[in-house]
């Protein structure tokens, strides 16, 4: 157990260093002066320019610069936005929870709908129901996320007026920022009609969540279906049938657990896809997440915000991927047993 944790800690540290090195290289790749890209401050005179260069050791060799960059980064000094003049750490912490909340809700739909439908399709393999579910999943997987989001907006917001068009909650609700996660902030707020606010926030969440969840749900259905079919063809399933176990007992005791184990590593890829798609959909629904924030930074050429925003998103994706892989390794002892034999 200790060896596994240490191995993943080393992996995460090396990956984080690589991401930091890439972020540091962008200082010299963006079409702006390195001191401005690094700090987000445009020097007003030569004295201020020299002071910033000395503070961040930009006149030293590249290794000294990178070491100083890391120390400032882990100290929480991420620079300031060229446009707003606000600290980037504050702006990212304001935008990132909205993206996490949207992606988490979409992942909930993927798991709750995708896995049961995939199991049903796999158990009824090559039947009419299987062909129908498979055809729908292929169609949904082929639809671009941004196009689906536009169709939802035109249909459910503009045509019928059933659901809100943009934002996270109606502006009539004054919800103080505490955690950045809207539903938690609503529950923590005072002097607020919480039921009405929660209902309004849920309505705002439906369209962007469905826009990014349907493609991943279709992918999860196909992955689960394939895994169920593979397990059903294993020799131990034939042995279980020969013992007289019912179909329900075989599915619960043998099929489900063995079919879900290969799916868990693939869920990390689905989460990465969900976060990427969420960043696309946020712009269409004016969702105040990290994706919309990065798009605005691109439009306004806020290079310091772009650099730190990409680093924050990349770090989040790496953390989630490693955490899911570690969880899968801990609940599947056979992987560690296999590694110990090969090593």
TrEMBL record:
It is found in: Cell inner membrane; Cell membrane. Keywords: Cell inner membrane, Cell membrane, Membrane, Transmembrane, Transmembrane helix, Transport. GO terms for molecular function: dipeptide transmembrane transporter activity. Residues 96-328 form the ABC transmembrane type-1 domain. Pfam families: BPD_transp_1. GO terms for cellular component: plasma membrane. The chain crosses the membrane at residues 92-117, 138-162, 201-221, 259-285, 305-327. Belongs to the binding-protein-dependent transport system permease family. OppBC subfamily. PANTHER family: DIPEPTIDE TRANSPORT SYSTEM PERMEASE PROTEIN DPPB-RELATED (PTHR43163), PUTRESCINE EXPORT SYSTEM PERMEASE PROTEIN SAPB (PTHR43163:SF4). This is Peptide ABC transporter permease. It comes from Alteromonas lipolytica. The lineage of its organism: Bacteria, Pseudomonadati, Pseudomonadota, Gammaproteobacteria, Alteromonadales.
